[in-house]
Amino acid sequence: MHEMRTIxxxxxxxxxxxxxAVAMRDGFHEAPITADGWAxxxxxxxxxxxxxxxxFDPDRPFGLASVPVGTFASFPGTINTGTELAPTNCIxxxxxxxxxxxxxxxxxxxxxxxxxxxxxxxxxAALTATDTRLYGRFxxxxxxxxxxxxxxxxxxxxxxxxxxxxxxxxxxxxxxxVRRSLFERWHAEQFWSITRHHHYWQPGFDxxxxxxxxxxxxxxxxxxxxxDAAAVIVVRDDHVEIRDLLGLSHRAExxxxxxxxxxxxxxxxxxxxCFDVRHPLPWAVTDRRSVSxxxxxxxxxxxxxxxxxxLASRSYEGDGEATIRVVDPLDDNTFTYRIRVAxxxxxxxxxxxxxxATLPLDSLAPIYSAxxxxxxxxxxxxxxxxxxxxxxxxxxxAREEPGISASIF
Length: 409
Ligand SMILES: CC(C)(COP(=O)(O)OP(=O)(O)OC[C@H]1O[C@@H](n2cnc3c(N)ncnc32)[C@H](O)[C@@H]1OP(=O)(O)O)[C@@H](O)C(=O)NCCC(=O)NCCS
Description:
By secondary structure, this protein is of the alpha+beta class.
């Protein structure tokens, strides 16, 4: 018989906390945690206000009964809906020991956590998925993508625009403070931005391998000397890796790329996560083929926990009206919603009217974030409606740019 319980996050790194982290690492088959790793993990879960949950099997042999067979963490966060930073349940550490899989343990942890999120009044639940087959059944849908970009920075590299401002190096702690403050400003303005967790501000350590990493930090200053973009780079054997790059404008980000390209040690720069799928970088270089998108992948999966509130909280770029039938696999939000936007103000109510489109909850998520439209989702077999109805929904949710999320957790 299994027992699920919460694990208190205390100022002392207790045996219970250690057992949780060991089980979570084992679940992902990752390297054991080092002394430095323990200190960083403990600091991060306290900063993030983590809620840790473990499932225990009292009959586990070889003295392992106190080591959980299932781990699950969630953190309070926010998503920018265009009108507010809406409370969001950020989920991570989802593992079940290989010896205990396919017995419903993940299902139990997830449904318990999602029920608590609804009771707390969270509008969204969010995660970044290692395995994409797991979360649709809980109503999570893909809402943001990221690109891995390679830049050939050999002799022919150049940007069309003239340089502006200047780039400077900074040390880890100073740079983390600047990066954090830039992120907070960006998060407050950017539609679909989600909170970044504490690990983003813990430089110089590779969590996966539990080894020190020689990060270099670059800050771009505008013409008035104010920081408007920052990057963390690592020099690898045959390329320079941009581990993180975030600016208040595309122009500021391009200045950092210009600087990294001119380091002159390598002919290749790899930008691991370009979170803006419409980033102008390929249009900014003199040789279009010096920039290649080598991979595009899903990043933020969202379950809309409270559909009515989420629809009322979203910013819409034009006035209009549409009626959608939402089908929630967990049933909490299975209703027909009528959305009327006048003067930019949405009015949302449940209705018995005929819907323009029928959307499983996991398909409403990319429509909400403007990653994908209802017509395309219908073609893919993920939505239903008449061409006119789908077009009405598409017009209402259309945005000049899709949302951007710059966090992986
Ligand atoms: C993914 C993982 C947590 C699943 O845990 P679990 O306890 O075996 O899952 P459950 O038994 O609760 O399964 C719940 C549902 O998911 C399905 N499912 C579980 N693992 C799956 C997989 N790898 N692929 C497809 N479906 C899967 C189950 O079939 C079940 O659906 P059903 O009720 O329709 O049969 C576990 O396999 C694991 O720890 N994997 C390694 C770590 C990992 O990838 N974690 C995910 C991080 S995002």
